[in-house]
Amino acid sequence: MKVTFTPPKKQDATSEQGIRVLYAPAKRMAFKVRWYLILILAFSPVIILLWYLGREWWLTQAPAIITTEPQLVVANGDGFIRNIYMTPGQPVSQGDVLMQFESPTLNVNIEARKARLKAIVLNKQLDELEILRILDGQISIAERGSREQEAIYKEYANYRQQKLVSSAEYASVLLSWTQSLIALQKAKVDKTQHILQVKEDHLTGPLASARHSLEQELTEMETMAMQQQPVAPTRGKVSDVLVQAGDWVFSGAPLALISKREDPLVLAYVQPKYLSSMETGHRAIVKLPSGERLAARVARPVELADKLPAQLAAPFEGEKATLKVALSLDDKLPLSLQVEGLPVTVLFD
To answer: Does the entry feature the keyword Transmembrane, yes or no (predicted)?
Structure first.
């Protein structure tokens, strides 16, 4: 059996042993308010701390990186980096040569074709000069023979007027002089034909075809050597140099990063379910590794990212599709934190 004791005060709080006791309501209310204020002041730090720590549980968090969206300059072949002409932070214009690239294989092929071309031209020139020397000798002999035959002819012509030689002897001398003139003209024609043949060979002959083929190959290789020199793809500044002078690089190896943005962006990678809230101008907070927080806002329409950056992706998460959200900072980022690819955290409201 349960026994309950009820004190008289509980039944009538304003009565004490039959005497009516009146309490001042205002004082009781002030007493309560004072205790409430004391409780609020006592627990407010805990409440504020819980709110500060717990707000990140209901805010949308996303991994992000700080970037100037640089363009990557890669090697166009296998070879050595002989010299580097730029440093990080240096401004560059589109087409500026960033470093000296040298391909040993290509250089050997270029020198070999130069040597073959030089040999073809030199040997042909020597042969042509030798033939011209022989033809000039034939002309000299024919001219000398013609002069001698002319002198003999004139002497016999004088004798014939004096009737000292027969007509047969005179005719024989005349024939010899005529033949010497014909031989001289033939020697000159041979030289002229040889010169024409040389000119034709320079254009259409077998050696000309070989020379043209070598010249074309040499031009293509020299053009390739020029195209292999790393150049700035756009106007901007050098964000980073990824190689050193003397390094051997393979085709496609990264060489440098060129940024055309002055102020860095924050690229956040958000799950697709938050697409509706990622509108341009939407505000967010960027949490830096140092703990500092910076205000930011969505700078442009959301894009679909095929994979996370390497510095953000956990094992086997590289191919996970996410939304790429670009945010611009309201305040200028300190130079000490303008590190390409620096991981940060973004909190969206």
So the answer is: yes
